[in-house]
# Entry
Amino acid sequence: MRKIGVLTSGGDAPGMNAAIRAVVRACVFNDIECYGIFKGYDGLINGDFKKLNVRSVAKILGRGGTILKSARSDEFRTPEGRAKAYEACKKHGIDGLITIGGNGTFTGANIFYQEFGLPVIGIPGTIDNDLYGSDNTIGYDTATNTVVDAIDKIRDTANSHNRLFFVEVMGRDAGFIALRAGIATGAIAVMLPEEELTIDELIAILEKGAASNKTSSIVIVAEGDANGGAYEVAQKVNAKYAQYETRVTVLGHIQRGGSPSAWDRVLASRLGVAAVEGLVAGELNKMVGLVNDQITYTPLETSISMKFQLNKEELRIAKILSI
Ligand code: F6P
# Structure
């Protein structure tokens, strides 16, 4: 392994920069040249490569976003696009690739490896935490803290007006942020893509709360919930139950920004080093992860096809504590 390329793809996540820094520095430490590839797979196709050295990644450890930029590349979904990407890798003498991203990123990496055999390792970087093969993904902790901070503020105004708030959080297919934030903010209910809570069930919970003199409540709605987003849920509840004055807040992309938490910085640093060491050791076409605090390498095929499940204990205690 003499030249490694690193890119970030899909939705950015706080801590991606810390992972890039770790990859670059672990390469330099191991006498490997490292090339940054800009704008995800689009940059791979267009040969948007830049050699990075130790100082290129100075002072990015605590910065949100990704200095390499990111994209969801349509061209890389085509065989022609991937062939162009492989040519660009050959031209630059890249003999290993590290892709930082989520499910879509790894789906692309897996196909690319099958087609051209270029060694690749994925680093899980997404706020959604929905990748099989790592207990946590880079960005999940920071995003959850951002949500908790926002809901604490919403709680103040909800309390002052005796209102019911529906707060929508990110998670297209996964309720990890919603569940954790629900426990951490004392939400009365959490609506998740993984576990359907019907509107009638939700109203029963709200009625119980009102009967025990609850004056304000927060319902967290993951964007992928089967009842629709927070606006739809609020509308459906209002139509059947007028006990509370309701308001809706959609937190949106604020959840993806900001300086990474200490946890995410350390996770990204560990996974970045382990990705380079994995490529050197011949762990090909795998996702590096942290399971029970141990570095693991899971085949990309497995990490994209298996569903990482919500923690059952967290689901259980969220219900116990929200009464
Ligand atoms: O995958 C991360 C994520 O933030 C999801 O939670 C969300 O549904 C999606 O990205 C939004 O993507 P975009 O920024 O492309 O609209």
User: Anything to note?
Assistant: The mean pLDDT is 97. The chain has two domains: 3-139+260-305, 140-257. The chain has eleven helices and eleven strands. Residues 140-257 form a domain with the Rossmann fold fold (CATH 3.40.50.460).
